[in-house]
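Minutes, project check-in
Item: structure for the 201-residue chain
Input as provided by the requester:
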Amino acid sequence: MPNPALRAAAVCLLLLLGLAVQVPAQSGGSTAQADLDQLVQTAQNIVRGQVVSARIEPHPQFPNLKTVLITVSVSKVLKGTAGPTLTFRQFVWDAREGSALAAYKGAGEMILFLNPVSQYGLTSPVGLEQGRFRVMRDEKGGRFVVNGRGNFGLFNQVSEKAAERGVTLSKPTLQMLAGATGKASLEAFEQAVQSLAGASK
């Protein structure tokens, strides 16, 4: 007879795979490319905030499942609902626990596009590293955002999709969407997210 804990772990893994936009692995694997519009439409909550803590610990219901518990001090909600503090639990996809923890620990300010929480209390950024943005400053002090893929493919066809749905985007946002892969202005990025999120209601 199969081990109940292993069976439960398999159930959780299948649920997580369904949440993560065709994601077979977190690190070292391939994730389906998602543009900004897809990230916004899929996410239940999109927040900007400071990572307060991140630690590896077993799932409270399934001790054999390793998870990373992240707490964020929220400074801005771009979609959904969140209080001043947001805590979420993510399955450790990679056997190398350090890589899962390193994505958050010491990351500072981030913008997170979070999937709906599963019945087991687990969630993850949409597209994993694609829905996890670090907020950084350039040499002039301006703030910009970059996700775990260096924003690769992030803005492909987004302005066209917005136009098809009648979404009006600001001039700075359109300029950002027309730009090459790389850092994106925080202000223009948040304007784009809020415009796209408003259109999805």
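Outcome recorded: Residues 4-199 form one domain.
No further action items on this chain.
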